[in-house]
Design brief:
- The protein is α/β, with parallel strands linked by helices.
- The chain is globular.
- Helix 4 links the parallel strand 5 (125-128) and strand 6.
- 23% of the residues lie in helices and 27% in strands.
C-alpha cells in the first residue's frame, strides 16, 4: 500500500541546476576509499588488480565491488584507473578485467590506451586519463567525439586555456583538473627517462622518479649554474585559491592526486576541498554537489600539516618563477622554531607550538634535508621544549644553536585523524499520517526520492494526549546508525493515538529499507558516450613515439581516424638515438633568470641571451636541455641505455596476469 502525498511535484518548467561539481579523491585501498567518501568525496578513483599507472596501488575486484556498494548509497561514483599502455599480449586480459569491473558496478574507467576502444567492451563510461596529454581544444574535441565523457586535462593549462577547451567540447562532456598533490614535472605521458635509464616505464605504472634526483646544471661552456640541486623537482599542486575561477573556466571535476597516500592524507585534503566546494555551492543556489549527503568533520582540515614539497598553483595563472622544489624532494614541513641549546642526547627548541612524543622534525644542512623522530619531549619553560633523541646530538649534522626546525610529522594530529573524524548524512524529511486502517510513514530524501511503509492496526487513543506526539517524534527520529539525518518531521493525525514503540520501530525500519533500495536503483549511472560516425579525423596525420602506440589495436584506432604514419611507443625499443626523454613547461633557464623573454627590453641585455643547450649532470648521466621558446617548453634529451635497448620490451616476455578475486 502506498501513502498518499500532498507534497508538490517538481515542476517540469524548473531550470536544471547550472553546475554540478565533483570532488574526486584518490584511494590506495577500498578502506581509504570509504574514508574519502565519509570526508566528502563525490567520486573516488582507485586502481584495479593490474594495468593501472600506479603499480603498487592495486586492488582485487572483490574489494572494489565492496567499495562500489558503499559509495552508491551516497550516489558517489567509483572510477577505476586502467591507464597504462598495453602490449598486444595484455589486450585480452584487460578486456576480461573491464567486464569484471563492469559487473562489479564500477561507474567509469580512466584510460589512456586507445586500443581499448577497439575491443569488445561493455557500455561502461570512459574517461580520458591525464596520460592522454590533453592540452589543446582540438585534442579535447577529438576525444569527446571518440566516446569519452570526461577529460582529465593537463596540469600545465592556464585558466584561459581551460576556458578555450570548454568552449570546444560538447556540454555533456565534463572537464577534470588536478587541484592538489604531487606534480609530474613532465607533461603526463611524455616522460621516458625512467624507462630509458632503468627499464621501468612511467607509461606502464612503474616510474623510478628520476625527476626527484639531484642534478648539476651546466651551461654550454661547462660552467656550473646550479650544483647538485633537485632541478626537475617541483612543488606540490594547491589550487585552493583558484576554485571559483576554475568553475568559471569550465572545470566540473576537482581531482586530488594521491593513490599512494595514506588515510590521514586523504581525510585531511578531501575534507579541506569539501569545505571549499561547499562554500562555492552555498554562494550559488543553482550549483549542486555531484553526490548526496552532507559531511560533518570532527577536525579542522589543514593542508599544511600533510606531506607536501611546498605549494604552487603551477600555471593556472600563468608562468610563475617559484614552482621548483630544488632544495629537497621530501617534506620539510612547517617551520616551528629554532634550536637554542644542545646537550648530549637532547636539544632545546624555542617554539610557540606544542610538541608530542613521536613528532618528526627536520632541518636543512648543505642543501639536504635532515630529520629525526622526537623520542620524548617536555616543556622546560614557556616557549621552550626539550627534545630527547635516540642518538648523540653531536652526530646530527647541521643541528646546533640557531638551526631552524620544521615539523614534518605532527604525531598528535595524526593520532586524531586515526580516529573517527567525519560522518556523512543524507538529509531526510518524514511525514507520518493517519490512514483509515492504520498509519503510514513516508520518507523523502534530499534528492527527491521517496519511500513509504504502512502499519495496519486497530487504533487506540493515547492515555496521555500531551506526551503522545513528543514520544512518537522521538521514536521516529532514531536514524543515528543509518546514512540519514532527519531534518523535518510532519505528523498528520486527527488525535493522538497509542502506538507501541516496537510497531513504530518496525515502520521506520521498513520505510528506511525501502528508501535504501530505491536509492541504489536510482544511482546515476552514465553509460558510454557514443562515438561520432563517421569517425572524426585525428588532429594530426603523423604520430611519433610520443603518441605511445604500443599495440595493434591502438594502431587500428588511429588509422581509422585518418592517421597515415604511426611510430611505435618508446617502450618498443625502436628509438635508438637521442630523443626527448621528457617534455615539460618547467624551464630552468626561466628559473635562473636566463630566459630570452625575460631579458627582452632590458638595456644592455637584449640579444645577448640565447636559448642555447644546457646540460643536466647526475653521476655519469648527462642530459642535454633544449629549449623551444615558441612553445615555452623545455626538452630533456637523451638515449635509451644499451642494456635496456637489448632487453625484451615490456610484456614481450610471458605475461603473468593475476585474475580478479571474484565477481560481485
Amino acid at each position: 500500500m502506498n501513502c498518499q502525498s500532498d507534497m508538490p511535484a517538481r515542476s517540469p518548467e524548473q531550470p536544471a541546476p547550472a553546475r554540478r561539481l565533483e570532488l574526486l579523491a584518490p584511494a590506495r585501498t577500498a578502506d581509504i576509499g570509504r574514508q574519502a567518501i565519509l570526508h566528502g568525496a563525490d567520486a573516488v578513483y582507485i586502481g584495479g588488480p593490474t594495468f593501472g599507472a600506479r603499480s603498487n596501488a592495486s586492488n582485487p575486484v572483490s574489494d572494489i565491488a565492496s567499495l562500489v556498494a558503499f559509495a552508491h548509497r551516497f550516489h558517489v561514483r567509483i572510477y577505476v584507473a586502467l591507464n597504462t599502455i598495453l602490449h598486444d599480449a595484455e589486450l585480452e586480459p584487460a578486456r576480461q578485467l573491464i567486464h569484471e569491473l563492469y559487473d562489479a558496478g564500477v561507474d567509469a574507467l580512466i584510460i589512456q590506451d586507445m586500443g581499448l576502444l577497439e575491443l569488445d567492451l561493455p557500455p561502461i563510461d570512459l574517461h580520458a586519463s591525464t596520460q592522454c596529454d590533453i592540452r589543446t581544444p582540438e585534442k579535447a574535441r577529438f576525444l569527446a567525439d571518440a566516446g569519452f565523457s570526461q577529460l582529465v586535462l593537463a596540469r600545465e593549462l592556464s585558466l584561459e586555456q581551460i576556458a578555450a577547451i570548454r568552449d570546444a567540447v560538447p556540454l555533456d562532456v565534463e572537464l577534470e583538473y588536478f587541484v592538489h598533490g604531487a606534480l609530474c614535472v613532465a607533461y603526463s605521458g611524455q616522460c621516458y627517462i625512467s624507462h630509458a635509464h632503468t627499464g621501468r616505464s612511467a607509461n606502464r605504472g612503474d616510474c623510478s622518479q628520476a625527476c626527484r634526483l639531484p642534478y648539476t646544471l651546466e651551461d654550454a661552456q661547462g660552467r656550473v649554474v646550479a650544483f647538485e640541486k633537485h632541478l626537475l623537482s617541483v612543488k606540490d599542486n594547491n589550487q585552493s585559491d583558484n576554485l571559483a575561477a576554475l568553475v568559471r573556466a569550465g572545470i566540473a571535476s576537482f581531482k586530488i592526486e594521491g593513490r599512494y597516500k595514506d588515510a590521514s592524507y586523504v581525510k585531511n585534503i578531501t575534507g579541506h576541498y569539501r569545505q571549499l566546494i561547499d562554500s562555492l555551492i552555498d554562494a550559488h543556489p543553482n550549483d549542486k554537489a555531484m553526490s548526496s549527503g552532507r559531511t560533518q568533520l570532527m577536525f579542522t582540515p589543514d593542508p599544511q600539516r600533510s606531506f607536501h614539497r611546498g605549494s604552487t598553483d603551477y600555471f593556472a595563472n600563468g608562468r610563475q618563477a617559484d614552482i621548483g622544489a630544488f632544495d629537497s624532494p621530501t617534506h620539510i614541513g612547517l617551520t616551528i622554531g629554532t634550536v637554542s641549546r644542545t646537550g648530549p642526547d637532547w636539544f632545546d627548541l624555542e617554539t610557540s607550538q606544542s610538541l608530542s612524543n613521536g613528532d618528526g622534525l627536520a632541518w636543512l644542512h648543505k642543501r639536504e634535508s635532515r630529520g629525526l623522530l622526537a623520542n620524548t619531549v617536555h616543556q622546560v619553560e614557556k616557549g621552550v621544549w626539550r627534545v630527547h633523541v635516540n642518538e648523540p646530538v653531536s652526530q646530527l649534522a647541521g643541528l646546533g644553536p640557531g638551526t631552524v626546525i620544521s615539523r614534518n610529522r605532527d604525531h598528535a594530529w595524526e593520532q586524531a585523524l586515526n580516529q573517527t573524524s567525519a560522518e556523512r548524512r543524507i538529509r531526510l524529511a518524514a511525514r507520518f499520517s493517519e490512514q483509515p486502517n492504520g498509519f503510514c510513514l513516508q520518507l523523502t530524501d534530499e534528492d527527491g526520492l521517496t519511500s513509504s511503509a504502512t502499519l495496519t492496526c486497530a487504533k487506540e487513543p493515547a492515555r496521555d494526549q500531551s506526551q503522545a506526539e513528543p514520544a512518537l517524534r522521538a521514536q521516529l527520529d532514531r536514524f543515528g546508525n543509518s546514512d540519514f539525518l532527519l531534518t523535518d518531521l510532519a505528523i498528520d493525525w486527527q488525535q493522538a493515538w497509542f502506538i507501541p514503540a516496537s510497531a513504530i520501530n518496525r515502520l521506520r525500519r521498513e520505510a528506511l529499507a525501502s528508501l535504501e533500495t530505491t536509492r541504489l536503483a536510482a544511482h546515476p549511472f552514465r553509460r558510454r558516450r557514443p562515438a561520432s560516425q563517421p569517425p572524426t579525423r585525428y588532429p594530426e596525420d603523423n604520430l611519433s613515439y610520443l603518441a605511445n602506440v604500443y599495440n595493434q589495436a591502438a594502431r587500428r584506432f588511429y588509422e581509422k581516424h585518418g592517421v597515415s604514419l604511426i611510430a611505435a611507443a618508446f617502450e618498443a625499443h625502436e628509438e635508438t638515438g637521442e630523443v626527448s626523454l621528457m617534455i615539460t613547461r618547467h624551464c630552468l633557464r626561466y628559473s635562473f633568470s636566463l630566459c630570452p623573454k625575460q631579458a627582452k627590453g632590458v638595456t644592455g641585455v637584449q640579444g645577448q641571451v640565447r636559448a642555447e643547450p644546457m646540460t643536466l649532470v647526475n653521476g655519469n648521466d648527462r642530459l642535454t636541455l633544449r629549449f623551444d621558446c615558441k612553445a615555452c617548453e623545455m626538452h630533456v634529451m637523451g638515449k635509451i641505455r644499451p642494456h635496456i635497448l637489448k632487453s625484451p620490451p615490456p610484456s614481450v616476455v610471458p605475461l603473468t596476469f593475476h585474475p580478479p578475486a571474484g565477481r560481485r
